[in-house]
Amino acid sequence: TIYVCAGWYGVLSALMFERIDAKNIYSFDIDPSTDNPADTLNKEYIINGMRFKSFVNDVRELKYEPQILPINHYKYNDATEFEKTKSTLDIEGPTCIINTSCEHIENFDEWFAGIPKGTLVIMQNNNFTEHDDDTVVNTISDENEWSAKLNLSEVIFKGTLNLEKYDRYMVIGRK
Fold it and tell me: Are 14 and 42 in contact (CB under 8 A)?
């Protein structure tokens, strides 16, 4: 069971379903405009056993254990008109947590401390500071700083993707 934190429109989840045999993938994003597109993109995994679901949820408030969370359902009347209903879903705790937007997590250390020890984590960050985005609050300078900040019990992979304006850093390991 994978929790994708800051999962946006569910693209990463769709790619993972194509490449790995995940039992469940749950996507969490604070932006209320993301759950409908994410569910639409991954609808076959909702229809076939509720293996995917997108949640409008602040990841800083997540519990990493079995829980019951509110969900939205969208029933389309035509190409653009839909009815939205609400219910809840009982979900399992994660065996893996992915966050590709750690630079946007305010009070990151507090959020990360809530992840249970031993959990597989895949965390990304970057060094992009020359922008006007005030939601970027947690950048770091290099992959070694990122790895040290995470302080994992086991590092499986760490690497840098050099981009035109900044570098992205990824660390995979056990908390």
Answer: yes
pTM: 0.92
The answer, yes or no, to whether residue 133 has pLDDT greater than 70, is: no
Q: Is 158 exposed, middle or buried (0-12, 13-18, 19+ CB in 10 A)?
A: middle
The residues, any chain, with a CB within 8 Å of residue 29's CB and separated by 6 or more, are 6, 7, 8, 35, 38, 54, 55, 56, 57
Amino acid at 132: D
Query: Bridge partners of 97?
Result: 3, 121
For residues 4-25, give the mean pLDDT.
95
Q: For residue 7, what pLDDT is reported?
A: 94
Q: Which helix (H) or strand (E) holds 22?
A: none
